[in-house]
Amino acid sequence: ERDPRRAGRVSARLGDVVRAMHGSRRDRYGRPGTDRTGGTDPVEQIVLRRALGHLAEAAARVDRIAAAGHRLLDLLHERHAAVLPRTEYGFIHGELGPDHVLVDDRDEPVLIDIEGAMFFDVEWEHAFLELRFGTGYSCFRRDDLDSDRLRFYRLAMHLSLVAGPLRLLDGDFPDRPAMLEIVEHNVGRTLAQLP
């Protein structure tokens, strides 16, 4: 349920909660409670590798992506090359959208479905928050994000949201129109990033 009188207060508090989470830092990425690193590759290299796979998958199935495939490949590499190394990571939810927030009887936001929580680049989460919250993203906005990293992650995120839903549609996914809408939206968002 959405009560406009409470929404502003809850949104502001949700922004505070997310900023506090992102402010919890560690010198290695990965799941909380582990002493080992998440891996040896830099985070941005992992994102690039996945994005290249998503681009290949999307190009094999979407003519408009295939037609722009070489330009998208160049853009991915260009944006990746602009990202400077980092050695500190913030704590992120991993898939935070409106459907992952409950509100208690004191109007406090409660985050649910936290199995994807990890230490990672907070810009990855912000790319997702922009997408999922749309105009409601303003409660999360920060001026200290790495703009090159954010631009790279936005492109990678859109490619993921073309390839992933198409993969789901290979099975018996029940809400096919919703998945096709996600694919179409993200095809448009991907292509809109081309110069």
Automatic annotation (TrEMBL):
Lineage: Bacteria, Bacillati, Actinomycetota, Actinomycetes, Pseudonocardiales
Alphabetized GO MF terms: transferase activity
Domain called Aminoglycoside phosphotransferase: residue spans: 3-127
Annotated InterPro entries: Aminoglycoside_PTrfase, Kinase-like_dom_sf
Database matches in Pfam families: APH
Keywords of this entry: Transferase
Gene3D superfamilies with a match to the protein in the record: 3.90.1200.10
Origin superkingdom: Bacteria
Matches recorded under SUPFAM superfamilies: Protein kinase-like (PK-like)
Name of the protein: Aminoglycoside phosphotransferase
